[in-house]
Amino acid sequence: MCGIIGYVGRSQALPILLEGLKRLEYRGYDSAGVATIEEGCITVRKEVGRIEDLRRAIGQHPVGGTTGISHTRWATHGKVTQENAHPHFDRSGKMALVHNGVIENYASLRTQLEEEGHQFVSQTDTEVLSHLIGRAFDRSAERTTSAMVTAIREALQLVSGTYGIAVIHAELPGVIIGARRGSPLVLGIGKGEHFLASDVSAIVGHTRDVVYLNDYEIVVLNGEGFTITTLEGNGADYNVTKVEMTDEDVGKGDYPHYMLKEIHEQVRSVTDALRGRLSHEEATAKLGGLNMTNAALRSVERVILTGCGTAFHAAMIGEYAIETLAQIPTECEFASEFRYRNLPMTKDTLVFVLSQSGETADTLAALRESKRKGHRTLGICNNVASTIARESDGGVYMHAGPEIGVAATKSFTSQVTILTLIALLLGRIRNLSSSDGSRIIAELEALPAKIEQVLTLEAEIAAVARRYAQAKVMLFMGRQYNYPVALEGALKLKEISYIAASGYASAELKHGVIALVNEETPSIFIAPNDALFHKNLSNIEEVKARGGPVIGIGTQGKGAELSLVCDDVILIPDAPEYLTPILASIALQFFAYYIAVELECDVDKPRNLAKSVTVE
Ligand code: F6R
Q: Of 70, 86, 193, 350, which residue has the fewest beta carbons closer than 10 angstroms?
């Protein structure tokens, strides 16, 4: 989704801005732009397409200056055009602004401004905000930074919606002003230089000392220092945080794509999700971050799990695990729906919000709605500095390391791992026996080695994937714990290869989906050695009887039986039913990845997608 980076200091801003934009590419975007202050004027360059297109355009018309702002745009209001790309000017042409978020009341404000004689060059909501700030500043008698801050405050009072903004003005060289409500902004502190970004990965190559801004705060930065105040004009408390992420963490290493790197990182990420969280002595999980006593956990009568996309699929697996191991009624709800439903929730309902980025607007809205209604709301996040992590009543961090590939991979398996820990903990303070607890712990400890084994199947899965890469439609089937895996496998394939794929509970096949089966429509069955293995085999037979090719994802020991009915078989290690989703989904991640590579798709930057969806 949209990204911001600003620089003020002694160095030339442009190379820093372009490098920062490159690091933000993974968020997904369709156009980009920069603005710098140069000899008392603002110079803007914008381009539709990739950062390389912008770089090429700038090469023909170079941009100088030591203060600048820049942006990657993911279109919401107005088509993907050069005019709609940020930065946007005010009426005077002296002020430039970049914006993440959505100004919801922009249409009425635009009409009002047009009646006053303002002319707009774009269809964006953002340009309205530029004009509002510029109008307020031009009405002020002073031409100072503090007058600009006042103008920004005034303008922001008029808008509803969300924003993270960075503003520069030709008459205020060496100054950037930022403000946030609902869209993240982080300040980077350097020596004689400062940075402002929507995402710490944009600046981590320059500084590790950062301040995460809160909603309703305004920051003024220049080369020497910064001040943070609230929108009301009061001083704001802040903490300088050391970023742990290294430059290497945000690089691709020797891998051709982030997605492949992140698939391979899952031995480590699952190990890190488990680290220090297993108690052999008590045969349970230790999750201190939940900030809840056993008595409080015991009184939980209902669990709600909410998230979007891949996180929602992980939540569905968590629903099975919590209901099976802890016998607590559990429900999954899309975060985008949660907020608009009036779910009957008693005071003993515990809500978990799942989000890799911790910034997904729908999930954040669900968190706030749940808290508003007085429910204890816990986060399962990867980004420790994210808004969801900060606003949750407690939670469990994934510790998966930065996930840059747009298609979520390691965050999914970390979420499932953590939900299994939660199910174990909730089960052990209810009916789950100590020996069952110990068995689950042993299985969790054996998991990283099993993931390692799945990773050794890469070449084999790649070969299968290439054989099916020309299919136009694919079906993914699984039962129970592996029904969400079927949904996730289909989502991965759709996202990065653009093949129409759908996931179903295997037995649903005969209730309608079977109409799609023919010689050209491959079906992928996740059929591990579980209680429903033979039911799955019958469903496979139904597809085969209609000429449909079948790929079976099975577990070791069941290869012979599966080979009798499947055209291709991929065998993952045997595991208890609550852990096969992790192993099967890694096999499906490889499958989707190698199909996308075969089709020469842009794996890390799939069309229309954004890594972190910060608009509702
Ligand atoms: C799919 C994918 C998305 C995200 C969803 C939620 O590969 O990446 O479906 O899972 O946008 O994102 P987070 O977890 O950051 O809230």
A: 193
